[in-house]
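Q: Can someone sanity-check these two? First one:
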Amino acid sequence: MANETRRRVRMLDVANSLGVSRATVSLVMRGSPLVSATTRESVLAEADRLGYVYNQAAASLRTQRNDVVGLVMPDIVNPLVAEVSLGAQEVLTELGYFAAIVNTSENVETQQRLFRTLVQQRVAGVIIIPALRTGADEVAEMSRSQVPLVVLTRAFPDFGVPFVGTDDAVIGGMGAEHLTGTHGCRELAYFGGNLLATPRVAREQAFREAATGAGATCDEVWSEPFDAGMVDAYQRASVLLEQGPPPRGILCHSDQVAYGLLKALQNKGYTPKDCAVVGIDDLLQSQLWTPSVSSIAVQPSEIGRVCARILLTEIGTPTDGAITPPEPVLHPRTSCGCG
């Protein structure tokens, strides 16, 4: 039909037609000196032939900013944080951006100082996992900076900042249902996690509701919150095991917590038949742990990619791909008795 709407030609179409990367086309359109004159001429000619129109209005949002995106992370040695960062960097690099990863060590003052430095350097945008004690004043300051911002994991809904997180209610319910339904556990615990971390609160609430609905109880002592580190988990579990046997089924706040708990259980001679353990995150090393760790996968690398895509939209250079986090999936292994 003569009036049929034509599909808008995308930057990716120009790249595919020439057999170059999308990042190369993006660099040409932004006038980057990193591209050779020959490549620039080829890209511009093909864009003209295909009818590609560069969105100059969107590009103007970045005229006073450079191509650096800040990743403000609370603990860069945490495997979950590392996988998230790598996923975000993958998408950003494809579009010609450079990811600058900075570590706050869960310190709010350090976080704010690093954020101000990034703003002063006129970064294109920021992806941040806020430090645990980040409050309304700190978030308000970041919002006022006018730097495109995406918050990960720990939500601040009152400030209208784009947020990406896991479906924590589904995760908590999924863990309880597996332990009660598949393994018949009637005494459970939610082990680890700081109460200042919003995922802990939502996951534990759903875990308790699902456990109660299945006729199970939660051990209050084993469910007391603590920092979600492997060493912290090992030390806490070792103390509790001196006082008596563990609950029959335990959902750990993270795979890191599960690693520490499993080590303590092994030291006391407990097996998955005595205590079924499920982690959360499904980190790459969980399959190789001994015993292999049953875990609820949240795909941290993909979450990082989602964050980057949302930030790029905020910046004004949207890209293809999912902009919602993947659904959690439980991978049963030996630590809960499924292996």
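And here is the second, same format, sequence then tokens:
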Amino acid sequence: MADVRDMYMAHAMFRREFSLLPELILDVPEGDGARAEVVGAHAELLCSILHLHHEGEDVYAWPKLLERGGAAAEAIVPTMEAQHHAIDECVTMIRKILPAWRSTGRRGAELAEVCDRLRVVLIEHMALEEREILPLAEKLMTAAEWSQLGEHGMKDMPKSKLPLGFGMVMYEGDPEVLKAVLADAPLVARLTMPIVAPRLYAKHAKRVYGTPTPPRIGRG
């Protein structure tokens, strides 16, 4: 059956990056387009990863849980769907404001406020998912079905961004879970990803946060 430990690992990454994002935006000096481009590119990457993550749940998880989970699934899946909609609305607003801010460094307070709104609804959503959905998925979904969620994100993410995305997850990831996630990957990925991905994230974090070791937040 499904090994859902990878979801806790992904959630830790989202909690960290989206919790740090509002202050990161506010720290950009007004009108500093160069710095805004660095932080803005980071924000866009996070939004893309989050969108693919939730799209995978919408396509592969919710229908199977509703089909097999009876009253327990019917009581929680509609809430998950509604929270995804609220999150999508925030992401859409961020992406509407982001291009102008990335080029000019202006309207940062407005962008940070929307990012903070996203942070609140996202953290609430992940906590509820961990409490109600993951126990259902462990009982009702096979390992192969669960793996479709991650495969969906990897399939649609630009290949050049995959190692960095994996490095973001590895930063607070359980080594045993990371090993399990890579178990079915091609040999070259199993050998290189544990080395390359953390280095890419350290370099990215240094550029974005000024340090290769931003604060760890972990599970909620």
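A (reply): Looked at the second one. The chain has a mean pLDDT of 95. The chain has one domain: 5-209.
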